[in-house]
């Protein structure tokens, strides 16, 4: 009997995380989860919340009705009219009249078989923007837009925009940060048997270069053994960066089976020639069935996403401690389950 050996790991991202500093690529933790910026960037609390506007926020003095000392009230935007209207539109979302006019929906039938549910992985907040129409000095109208967040997916470090930008006439689209920013996603590495091997936070995006750094850090500790196969849903992008790195020599980097069949175009020659899991016979048995569950990371993240409501306001130290304490008994239970099934799990 011919016996083959293959050590594999599966990677995937989950859109949960902690409040972070509003300055891109700043990894300094917030002093408080109500802050928007870390201690090194505290001065940005007094800068307009409109993205790209560096004007100071508008401050007004309000007299105390009881005769006390006057109070200084800070707005979140600058003195310009358009930012003020955008802030007013944002504030309307917390009023009852806003929901009366925008959230008129049919009653939900709890017994209906057609009820749509949101996937547990899509936990990230939606993208919000504001469109200003008309004269931008006076007589303009602000419209609030919400775009669905597609979840976490690997991207290149410097994405290119193939579509030219719209000319700056007629309408103006603005983005604003009326609150603290959040880290992008939690990246996990899971063994095909279900053991969570490692997890790391991606601050601004699931860039494939960060995923490669995570792999090298996780498998470069003393005693760690590099896997023969790494399954990842955008390995076609990751391998283009990793193929010239000697650390990845001899490692198969395939797209997991479901994504390869459903999400990657058959016309993508690089992906078909370099990231097709069918290229590696050791991943299949003689009947062409897959030995490994290459979707195990997504299935594990569905469980991990259940803690989102608990950790979303935690700062990094408490967040990491909590996840580690949840993952440890989970791994222990998986090991016990494998032993009961007659397998021989080992930790190395």
Automatic annotation (TrEMBL):
One Pfam family this sequence matches: CxC6
Domain CxC6 like cysteine cluster associated with KDZ: 10-61
InterPro entries: CxC6
Protein name: CxC6 like cysteine cluster associated with KDZ domain-containing protein
Organism: Psilocybe cyanescens
């Amino acid at each position: 009997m011919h016996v083959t050996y293959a050590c594999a790991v599966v990677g995937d991202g989950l859109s949960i995380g902690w409040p972070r500093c509003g300055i891109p690529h700043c990894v300094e933790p917030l002093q408080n989860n109500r802050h928007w910026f870390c201690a090194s960037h505290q001065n940005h609390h007094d800068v307009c919340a409109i993205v790209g506007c560096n004007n100071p926020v508008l401050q007004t003095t309000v007299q105390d009705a009881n005769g006390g000392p006057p109070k200084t009230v800070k707005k979140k935007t600058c003195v310009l009219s358009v930012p003020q209207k955008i802030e007013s539109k944002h504030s309307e979302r917390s009023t009852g009249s806003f929901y009366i006019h925008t959230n008129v929906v049919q009653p939900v039938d709890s017994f209906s078989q057609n009820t749509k549910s949101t996937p547990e992985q899509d936990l990230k907040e939606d993208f919000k923007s504001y469109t200003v129409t008309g004269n931008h000095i006076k007589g303009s109208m602000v419209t609030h837009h919400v775009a669905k967040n597609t979840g976490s997916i690997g991207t290149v470090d410097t994405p290119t925009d193939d579509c030219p930008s719209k000319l700056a006439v007629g309408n103006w689209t603005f983005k604003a940060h009326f609150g603290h920013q959040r880290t992008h996603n939690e990246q996990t590495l899971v063994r095909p048997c279900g053991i969570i091997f490692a997890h790391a936070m991606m601050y601004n995006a699931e860039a494939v270069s960060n995923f490669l750094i995570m792999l090298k850090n996780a498998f470069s500790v003393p005693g760690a053994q590099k896997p023969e196969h790494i399954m990842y849903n955008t390995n076609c992008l990751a391998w283009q960066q990793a193929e010239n790195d000697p650390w990845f020599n001899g490692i198969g980097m395939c797209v997991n089976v479901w994504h390869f069949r459903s999400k990657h175009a058959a016309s993508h020659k690089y992906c078909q020639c370099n990231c097709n899991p069918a290229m590696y016979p050791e991943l299949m048995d003689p009947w062409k069935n897959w030995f490994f569950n290459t979707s195990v990371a997504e299935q594990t993240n569905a469980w991990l996403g259940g803690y989102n409501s608990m950790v979303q306001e935690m700062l990094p130290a408490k967040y990491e401690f909590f996840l580690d304490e949840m993952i440890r008994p989970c791994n222990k239970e998986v090991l016990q389950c494998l032993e009961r099934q007659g397998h021989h799990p080992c930790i190395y």
